[in-house]
């Protein structure tokens, strides 16, 4: 069988690459990384939110090529059904898929005004009112999930939802977004995952910076 690969772009800047990579790690599927350089035109378009067709991450496995992050999540759930990428309960499973769809297609102001930058830290960052509305919605989603599940992850055990919201956690850390204790604890849980720590270490080792995503306040 041909080797399984996951094509990603910058670990420092690419939220979609992080999602796909975490999903693959959560599933337990063994894969090799194929890294597209940040100066590649398609990679920059994805990172800078200039492309309506996001082609990374891209999973290639056993004859299948899957490049949409939600499609990757569902594909991994099919081939690794015991990995727990979705909750076992039907109602919780529907809830999980709904909030994953929401982060997949929404929160555009949050994405644009608080870009992922794992090397950066901007205490006192001024947040636009429209971005604050997105932040408030994320906090509502997290709060409802944690109140229902009891944590430490959104649905108790980690699922595709935690992978999908992990880049938001990094944004909150980078831009010093204040969270109430229960949400801060959840953010800490995500940041402390061994997979997340490995990704962050690799991100900090990346030599290239993208000027458009470097801000000074």
UniProtKB/TrEMBL annotation:
Residue intervals of the GST N-terminal domain: 4-84
Organism superkingdom: Bacteria
Keyword hit for Transferase: yes
GO BP annotations, alphabetical order: glutathione metabolic process; L-phenylalanine catabolic process
Record keywords, A-Z: Transferase
Record-linked Gene3D superfamilies: 1.20.1050.10, Glutaredoxin
Record GO terms (molecular function): glutathione transferase activity; maleylacetoacetate isomerase activity
Classification via PROSITE patterns: GST_NTER
Protein name listed in UniProt: Glutathione S-transferase family protein
């Amino acid at each position: 069988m041909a080797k399984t690969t996951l094509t990603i772009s910058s670990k420092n800047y690419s939220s979609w690459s992080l999602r796909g990579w975490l999903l693959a790690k959560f599933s337990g599927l063994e894969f090799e990384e194929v890294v597209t350089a940040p100066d590649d035109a398609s990679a920059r378009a994805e990172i800078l939110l200039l492309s309506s067709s996001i082609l990374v991450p891209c999973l290639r496995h056993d004859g299948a090529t899957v490049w949409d992050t939600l499609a990757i999540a569902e594909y991994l759930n099919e081939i690794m059904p015991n990995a727990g990428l979705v909750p076992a309960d039907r109602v919780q499973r529907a809830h999980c898929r709904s909030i994953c769809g929401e982060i997949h297609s929404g929160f555009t102001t949050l994405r644009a005004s608080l870009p992922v930058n794992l090397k950066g830290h901007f205490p006192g960052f001024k947040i636009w009112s429209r971005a604050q509305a997105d932040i408030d919605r994320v906090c509502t989603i997290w709060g409802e999930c944690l109140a229902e599940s009891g944590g430490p992850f959104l649905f108790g055990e980690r699922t595709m939802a935690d992978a999908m919201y992990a880049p938001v956690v990094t944004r909150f850390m980078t831009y010093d977004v204040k969270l109430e204790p229960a949400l801060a604890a959840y953010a800490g849980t995500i940041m402390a995952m061994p997979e997340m720590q490995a990704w962050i270490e690799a991100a900090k080792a990346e030599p290239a910076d993208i000027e458009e995503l470097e801000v000074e306040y």
